[in-house]
Amino acid sequence: MKSISPFVAAALAALIPGLALADADHGGVKQPVDRGPANADYEPAFPEQANAPKMEATETTIETFVEGLERPWGIAPLPDGSYLVTERPGRLRHVSASGEVHEPITGLPEIDAREQGGLLDVTLSPEFDSDRMVYFTYAKPVDGGVATAAARGTLSEDMTALENVEDIFVQGPPADAPMHYGSRITFDGEGHVFITTGEHFTDEYREMAQDITNTYGVVVRLNPDGSVPEDNPFVGQEGEDAIWSYGHRNIQGAAIQPSTGDYWTIEHGPAGGDELNRPEPGANYGWPKVSYGVRYDGEPVGIGEPRAEGIEEPVYYWDPVIAPGGMAFYEGGAFDGWEGDLVIASLVPGEVVRLDINEEGLVVGEEALAGGNGRVRDVEITESGEVLFLIDSEAGAILKMSPAN
């Protein structure tokens, strides 16, 4: 039996004083995860869009897998059980299956590591076994400004160098604000690569997320060599051919849902309004015209409403925020009942968030895990089903979460 929404629960509690808040599986009602008061008083467009019922707590064990990293940002598993890990100051590391950190891999391009910029995401070519191609995103210095860029190179057999590095995408135009780079890079399993960007944060730049003649605040869809697929929504129209969707703020998480092949993203809102989306071709996701959050000074965003005609609704939003990083759909046998759930990195308050997503693509449960360990920047599911998560700090680390006992 699926749980009823927390909003229906609140109405029932008001009508029936003393109504017990019992476990949802037993016909009662659960409250959402408590992260404090909301920044805005907007109502969701549908009951499952926010404040999903808090799920029964998972008992876990957390141990340190890797120490001695500086601002780790992205992680990619290699076929031999080892990993590639990025450090935002501009280093790509090979980490052995036992957690040994090796010297920085050579061959990276020039990287602008100011503010939120630097070396960001990393992933492997779907044909890595034959082409040894590594794809990564970074803050690229361009004409006195900076831009989100995606590049690829061939990893040497001894894991010490990237060779023949070339850009496959450079955001345009360059900005003078080293903030909001987006930067998650994801293969869709159908011969395409998705790259997320941000809108560089400032009042001057954020409005550009509504302008499809640039690549600020968009999802980009390309062929692996950087060429544009002919079926992209704006090919042959006014607008950048590479754009898949637009009106985003700062997308730092993306994943392909194994059961459906759908592409999902998660982006930072302002004060409130972090969004989980399933971007559709040519669709507008609203920033900065509408938001379920408010500006940092408490003033309304855009038109002062959370929705408008022609704007796509998020699948789910948070207020207050979780400040999302990377995410992954859970596949593995370690945690019972997690299969198909979405596992998300949270920078603030700093935790691993689990969402239960039903067959209709709606969020029907939420759990906060691993709190108190610091800012979580990215997550990775091991072959055996444990969760690795990156702690973003000067004394960064990779921690491993396993079921207790």
UniProtKB/TrEMBL annotation:
InterPro entries: 6-blade_b-propeller_TolB-like (IPR011042), Glc/Sorbosone_DH (IPR012938), Quinoprot_gluc/sorb_DH_b-prop (IPR011041)
Name of the molecule in the record: PQQ-dependent oxidoreductase, gdhB family
A Pfam family per the record: GSDH
Residue ranges occupied by any Glucose/Sorbosone dehydrogenase domain in the UniProt entry: 69-400
Transmembrane segments: none
Keywords attached to this entry: Signal
SUPFAM superfamilies cross-referenced by the UniProt entry: Soluble quinoprotein glucose dehydrogenase
Signal peptide per UniProt: 1-22
